[in-house]
Amino acid sequence: MDKTINLNVLNTQVNLLDLDFKNIQLFLASIGAKIFTAEQIIQWIYSHNCYDFNKMSNISKKIKKKLHQTSCIKTSNFSEEQISSDGTIKWVTSLNNQKIETVYIPEKKRSTLCISSQIGCSLKCDFCATGKQGFNRNLKVSEIISQILQAKKKLKNTKITNIVFMGMGEPLLNLNNVITALKIILNINGFGLSKRRITLSTAGIAPAIDKLNKIIDINLAISLHAPNNNIRNLIMPINKIYNIESILSAVSRYLKNSNANRNGVTIEYVMLKNINDSIKNAQELAYILKKIPSKINLIPWNSFKNSNFISSTNSNINTFANILRKKGFNTTIRKNRGQDINAACGQLTGNIINYRKNHL
Ligand code: SAH
């Protein structure tokens, strides 16, 4: 709660969407409200999508006045929408002059919302358009949560069944805000999603995996993308700081405490022609994952402007997958969704100038 108290001292309004529910209670207590008032406000926000204190009919006038003086409920709204021929929807949120993207992916049995955690990304993975764009800043909790609130509003009766942190940015480099957002997503009075329906994808910030391990259990997806450090160093500069061994040992420690990952951690592997897609590479990958319960997700590489990579061919990807399967790994090949609107993995740059856009 320190942050809130400091903000009050500075006479700055607290955005209640930046706080998890324990801190909403503490904040409300600090302005003289009872615990149940905090619960009522949480319900107004998360169950009724009401962000206006005046419309909260069960809150007393006295508390409403104090709320107006000290706080606000401010969402950041979608400004543009694009719909793919496969039903995938991409929304853009403009934050001052910067843009972030949120992608909705409907499937037969589930509908997944892919959310961003940073504006841009600092990791500079060679094969990723977001990485090429550079880093601007971390998203606030309210900006992460707003993506879900806004998507729910847009989708009306369609339920979001899964949330993945696979949009722009490296979620483990915005750890504190991502943890608060995860608490709200998991809380039954928030979005009430089970931990098995939330996935955080990371390039492998090993100490942050250990920190997360102490606080929250959710599905982990590791962007491994290479079967050895030589190849990984070439395509992911972060590997020079956290190499494959350090990441896999942090993952093993996470798995020991995790119920969400009981079918194994997801290993993401982007298929780059002549870089990481040989038969030997598949064998190496199987070898390094021998002791890590894992499901391997092979991702055909999505192209973007000014990049030198070529995606592996389908037949190459199938051969690679079959080697892993023969070695006992549950291996899937990711269907790329929303490519026609640049909403697929690694294509998010906040830039939709070249495409038909609908201003909302
Ligand atoms: N920073 C996080 C989340 C990023 S994006 C991470 O690294 O995991 C989600 C996934 O898309 C990651 O596995 C990322 O490596 C992958 N990806 C990035 N660019 C891609 C591209 N052009 N084609 C296919 N997958 C890509």
Automatic annotation (TrEMBL):
Cofactor: binding details: Binds 1 [4Fe-4S] cluster. The cluster is coordinated with 3 cysteines and an exchangeable S-adenosyl-L-methionine.
The EC number(s) this enzyme carries: 2.1.1.192
InterPro entries: Aldolase_TIM, Methyltransferase_A, RlmN_N, RNA_MTrfase_RlmN, rRNA_lsu_MTrfase_RlmN/Cfr, rSAM, rSAM_sf
Single biological process term from Gene Ontology: tRNA methylation
Gene Ontology cellular component terms for the protein in this record: cytoplasm
Keyword tRNA processing (UniProt): yes
Residue intervals of the Radical SAM core domain: 107-340
Binding site for S-adenosyl-L-methionine: G169, E170, S201, S223, L224, H225, N302
Keywords: 4Fe-4S, Cytoplasm, Disulfide bond, Iron, Iron-sulfur, Metal-binding, Methyltransferase, rRNA processing, S-adenosyl-L-methionine, Transferase, tRNA processing
Principal subcellular localisation of the protein: cytoplasm
Catalytic function, reaction form: adenosine(37) in tRNA + 2 reduced [2Fe-2S]-[ferredoxin] + 2 S-adenosyl-L-methionine = 2-methyladenosine(37) in tRNA + 5'-deoxyadenosine + L-methionine + 2 oxidized [2Fe-2S]-[ferredoxin] + S-adenosyl-L-homocysteine; adenosine(2503) in 23S rRNA + 2 reduced [2Fe-2S]-[ferredoxin] + 2 S-adenosyl-L-methionine = 2-methyladenosine(2503) in 23S rRNA + 5'-deoxyadenosine + L-methionine + 2 oxidized [2Fe-2S]-[ferredoxin] + S-adenosyl-L-homocysteine
PROSITE patterns the record matches: RADICAL_SAM
Active-site residues per Swiss-Prot or TrEMBL entry: E101 (proton acceptor), C345 (s-methylcysteine intermediate)
Cofactor: [4Fe-4S] cluster
GO molecular function: 4 iron, 4 sulfur cluster binding; metal ion binding; rRNA (adenine(2503)-C2-)-methyltransferase activity; rRNA binding; tRNA (adenine(37)-C2)-methyltransferase activity; tRNA binding
Keyword rRNA processing found: yes
Compartments where located: Cytoplasm
NCBIfam families: rRNA_mod_RlmN (TIGR00048)
Note: Reaction proceeds by a ping-pong mechanism involving intermediate methylation of a conserved cysteine residue.
Record function comment: Specifically methylates position 2 of adenine 2503 in 23S rRNA and position 2 of adenine 37 in tRNAs. m2A2503 modification seems to play a crucial role in the proofreading step occurring at the peptidyl transferase center and thus would serve to optimize ribosomal fidelity.
Entry-linked PANTHER family: 23S RRNA METHYLTRANSFERASE (PTHR30544), RADICAL SAM CORE DOMAIN-CONTAINING PROTEIN (PTHR30544:SF5)
Family: Belongs to the radical SAM superfamily. RlmN family.
Protein name (record): Dual-specificity RNA methyltransferase RlmN
Taxonomic source organism: Buchnera aphidicola
Lineage: Bacteria, Pseudomonadati, Pseudomonadota, Gammaproteobacteria, Enterobacterales
